[in-house]
Amino acid sequence: MKLNSIINSRFKQLSFSVAAAFMFLGFTSLSTSPLALAYSSSNLQPGSYSSVSSVTSSAGPKYLGHALTGKNPDDVSISGNTAFVVNYGSSSLQIFNISNPADITLISTTATGLHPQVVSTHDDYAYVGVSGDGNTGGNALTERLQIFNVTNTAKPVLVNGEGILSGYGPIDSITISSTNYLYATEYDFQANSSGVEIYNISDPNSLTTASGNFDIDSGPNRATITLDKNLFIESGSKMQIYNISTNPTKPTLDNLGNQNTGTYICGGLTGFRISGEYAYVACRGYNRIYVVNISNPADPVLSNGVNGFTLPAGAYPSDLAIVGNYAEVLGASSNILYQYQITSGTKLTLDGTASTGGNPVSIGQDGDTVFVANYNSNTLGAFSVE
């Protein structure tokens, strides 16, 4: 999910070349990655935001403020009035006070292992997935899970040394149940294999090995948990739904699908959120959003058809958040935050837009405010949902 000189396995680190410039942003030049699949992105500098809206009858998302981050912020996790950001380029964990979104302030910067690409928080700990140089064909032993005690946000403490070695490859996502089980989805693009490792984090300070693991459909992946009953995994082109209520360390696949490997959505899935009985899925490969009815985990249904909902040309979504009756969608290529009103769970109507920094890759939520990590601009931006 980055625009840099190395090939990273995750889709938000890939880019797609487009021949368009976004004149309303005031930029006409396009930056192009040397990757075979590269997308264009206006090189906004830190602070280059604008609250341009394409729907004059609606306030849409409103830009509130931003803060500078380290190099290449790749993921943001929100916990109360605190934002946790991992910077892939500068290999660091940063903690920000977001109690006033118009004036985001840096609390601390802590070194991590090489190239962190995901962060999740639980109780007084931050869990960081470090890819090392595994994404570039280097030493797989650098791909690890690191745990930081953040009781004192001004001085986080690494509690597990170099971290726990990943079993499959770089960690793509981390999701944690209220019963203290951590699920890390991993993808090794060289071996073209993916898996999930499960950790009991009842005592993070003594965690040394995984409690279980299982293979999943190969491809970049993300995961989330609902009510400590179902583990939803977006892997490659499919959604896989596992039951974790009976045995959290040995999940069973509910939606076998026609190939016993889950439900096909589209090629190039990059993010999803669950709200009620629906899952909202971003498909970067097809520039679409899919709505999936998950009321029956054994038989998910594409509520808006096999073609989904097409985003404006050149958007290529990298992540999304659901805020009340709105879907906030990041356009990684267009550098735009799109706000869609959700009606009856399945109908999406464009309600407004706001420009972000360069290459927005991750979005976190605190109430009616969303926070966007901009990979190219090295910024964390705040927007109110109105």
Walkthrough of the structure:
It contains no helices and 31 strands. Mean pLDDT is 83; it is low at 1-57. Strands 6, 7, 8, 9 and 10 form a five-stranded antiparallel sheet that branches. Strands 15, 16, 17, 18 and 19 form a five-stranded antiparallel sheet that branches. Strands 20, 21, 22, 23 and 24 form a five-stranded antiparallel sheet that branches. It has strands at 61-68, 73-79, 82-87, 92-97, 105-111, 116-122, 125-130, 144-149, 157-158, 164-165, 171-176, 181-188, 193-200, 212-216, 221-226, 230-235, 238-243, 252-253, 263-264, 269-275, 278-283, 288-293, 301-302, 309-310, 317-323, 326-331, 336-343, 347-355, 360-366, 369-374, 379-385. By secondary structure, it is mostly beta strands. 0% of the residues lie in helices and 46% in strands. It has a single domain, classed as TolB, C-terminal domain (Neuraminidase, 6 Propeller). β8 (144-149) and β9 (157-158) form a beta hairpin.
Task: Tell me the overall shape.
Answer: globular
CATH C-level name: Mainly Beta
Please tell me how large the radius of gyration is: 19 Å
Instruction: Please report the total strand number as a whole number.
Output: 31
| CATH architecture designation | 6 Propeller
Total individual domains: 1
Task: Give the count of helical stretches.
Answer: 0
CATH topology: Neuraminidase
Binned, the helix content reads under 10%
Which residues sit in consecutive blocks of at least 5 with pLDDT less than 50? Answer: 1-57
Helix and strand content put the structural class at mainly beta
CATH-assigned homologous superfamily: TolB, C-terminal domain
